[in-house]
Amino acid sequence: MDGNRTTKKIRVLIADDDPVIQALVKRILQKAGYDVVIAENGLRAVELMTDRIDAVLLDLHMPEMDGLACLRIISRKYKGLPPIMLTASDDVSNAVEAMRYGAFDYITKPFNPKQVLALVKKSSQAYEQAKRLRKVEAELIRAREHEFFVASEIQRTMLMGQPPDDFEGLGVASLTIPSQRVDGDFYDFFKLNDHTLDLLVADVMGKGLMAAFLGAAMKSRFLRVMNELEVSSGRQAQPSPEQIITAVHAGMIKQMEDLETFVTLCYGRFDLEAAQFIFVDCGHVRTIYYNAQANKITLLQGVNMPLGFPEIDPFKQIIQPFSPGDLFVFYSDGLTEATNHEGEMYGERRLTDLIFKNAGFENENLLKTIRQRIENFTGSKTFDDDFTCVLVRIDQPLNRPLITATDKLEIKNDLDELASVRSFVRNFCETVPVNRFGAKPMDNLEIAITEVVTNIIRHAYKSQKGRKIVIEAESYAEKLVLMVYDWGCGFDPEKVPPPEFDGSKHGGFGVFIIRESVDEVIYSRNGDGRNCTGLTLLLRKEKENGV
Amino acid sequence: MEFKIEKSDDIVVVGLMIEALDASNAKEFKSDIASVLIKNKKVLFDMSNVKFVDSSGCGALLSCLRQLNSEKGNLKLMGVEKAVKTLFELVRMNRIIGIYDNRKEALDSFKVAAFEK
Questions:
Q1: pTM for the complete prediction?
Q2: CB distance A450–B83 less than 8 Å?
Q3: Domain boundaries of chain A, sorted by first residue
Q4: Inter-chain residue contact B93 with A503, CB threshold 8 Å
Q5: What is the ipTM, given to two decimal places?
Q6: Which of B20, B65, B91 is closest, CB to CB, to A513?
Q7: For residue range A106-134, what is the model confidence (pLDDT) as tens digits?
């Protein structure tokens, strides 16, 4: 016992309706130097209970409230306090029952004073232990929370770089949600000159402070290496991504081996002059590359081991050419390894499909969609792993495509609106320079928009009345785009059977006509349940085939 | 729905007095034209007022054709606008329904068909 506790007298609550027992026990305990509080029934015992009571003796049979009920109330409120039961020798089964509800032990009357003293001492010690344990646990939780706070602050302020918002030619956006453990995800952007932006996305194996600190150390190593390489090359040329990674690896391998950890990363360079993405991938998740013109997804995989592995082969970089409109999606395994209630992971396949279907969304909207879809999948708004996603979109030349005209129409989901939809499109087409636009494409847009709106009214909204459809028209130098929005059921054009051309049935013609009438059709649905059908008609050249 | 109906021998020429035949009026068209199809076997639709047809419109025309065919009759079209014709070609309707540039050709085509029988 420490000195502090001996100065504080142990206080014992005795609950018994028999004045003889009260007096007897009181005398035994006071003689041994304890403070004693007497209650004449269970109800009174509950009233007299305080934090200052160190041990409790309860008679099983008392008026007002019996010992068992009293025991349950006290042990619920004072966690870890184990009362000692007093019982007549013919009532041992009730005493045993009391043990199941948290009693420390029982004493049968008439009792031995030494036994009373020994049990009171032991039970008060057990209570003291339990209280100390709870305090230590609470401190541990606080310490862990503090560590998480510090680690996530390091991650937020030092590890996550700000995406540049003024880099001409690239649209960059990022999203991070730290997990309750901080996994050491990090990313940063280095603007080398007006047409070159380097991007680093990495994931440290490990959690909490260690991962956060290693991430910070690695980032500062990158900056140092880039500086040194640039100085040594006499500012003649930018150090290549493979040179940078090789130098970072050489500088950090010892520490990483000592810490028994490793880092997966992708270090890439967007060179707008060469229209190339040059990257070194070290065991990171595959970057999703969406080629806008081909409307195709490619997964960019590297050939290198994660940093921290004893690498013998030299690091190799890979070149991926790009064109305006293309999209690169960098992410951490927190996205693909997000798990639902059945233990199934979200997976690369789902993420790739999602990007493919929504690649037309602007960056922020796409990030929101990705997050919502994964939250819907896991059924949770928090993640077990850090959730990091960076989007880089190659802008159209001249930074952004210039919209030459724009217009908007809102209608009810009523087939009687079809004529006004067509006149809206016709009027809009008339604002587009005539020399670029023959009568044919205009007819095509009219038929395509009629089919799209009809499908929405018939299938997306089914029999619902009073819903709305919004049509936005935009024209650019080289194309004309109609976006049709509705808030009905989603639509999968893949599920529509192809049409029969022999007149035997006329299903499937609408979707077929839409596809044949315009250059591009994109169906997408965002997390808020808004469907978008995008129709694009290229103005540059006369279509050779089709309508 | 308004139709301009003329007879030429046993052929009935129906002028469609609508600007568009689309999802908004295809149903109405089918029910209003039904009485004409019951009474006649050789039917020629004059489409020269119709500036726009969509897939529902195509469906309505096909259902007229099917109805007439089942009674050993026939449906032909004349005065089809260029844009409408392009759509008919896209969904290959031109292979199932005879489309003629003018009234004489269309009327003659019924006679040839009758003669061949």
A1: 0.47
A2: no
A3: 3-133, 160-394, 403-538
A4: yes
A5: 0.86
A6: B91
A7: 888 888 888 888 888 888 888 889 889 98
